[in-house]
Amino acid sequence: MKITIPVKTPSVNHLYGHNHFGATYLKTEAKKLRQEIQEAINKQFGFSFEELKNVKLKVNVDIYENWFTKDRNVKRIDIGNREKFLIDTVFESLGLDDKFIFEHTMRKVQSDTDERAEIDIDILP
């Protein structure tokens, strides 16, 4: 199954805040983004994913974005900071539990104009 998220996914640092007690919370911007991602998934798929429940899964994520500065140096962007929020949101939208992810890869894909994420979810033997 291939899912396209048609928006740029910010890093975890921009999505979560900390209150004066040290507790972590999801910022308003992140809640709006989560809703936008869930709506995009619902438009792509309008059915249940029962066949993906309780089976080992392989997840591949491609993040399309401009990864270079004007001087063609690589930007200081940690792709791992994008993973947690994105996977949590997608799996919640599909009604799946991410504990069944047994293989996971992420790639940066250079794009000067398009910012999106593509997620492939497959069942492992």
Summarize this entry quickly.
With 125 residues, this protein is α+β, with helices and mostly antiparallel strands.
Structure description:
This protein has helices spanning 12-15, 28-44, 80-94, and strands at residues 2-5, 16-18, 24-26, 57-65, 101-110, 116-123. The chain has three helices and six strands, in the order βαββαβαββ. The chain has one domain: Holliday junction resolvase RusA (60s Ribosomal Protein L30, Chain: A), CATH 3.30.1330.70. The strands form two sheets. It has a four-stranded mixed β-sheet, covered by helices on one side. Strands 2-3 form a two-stranded antiparallel ribbon. The chain is an alpha+beta fold and 125 residues long. α3 links the parallel β4 and β5 (101-110). Helices cover 29% and strands 30% of the residues.
Radius of gyration: 15 Å
Order of helices and strands: EHEEHEHEE
Q: Strands across the major sheet, in which order?
A: 1-6-4-5
Outline, from the CA principal axes? globular
Name the CATH architecture. 2-Layer Sandwich
Number of strands: 6
Give the strand content.
25-35%
Q: How would you state the average pLDDT, rounded?
A: 87
The major beta sheet can be summarized as: 4 strands, mixed
Write the layout of secondary structure elements.
Layout: E1 2-5, H1 12-15, E2 16-18, E3 24-26, H2 28-44, E4 57-65, H3 80-94, E5 101-110, E6 116-123
Parallel strand pairs: 4-5
Antiparallel strand pairs: 1-6, 2-3, 4-6
Helix pairs in contact: 2-3
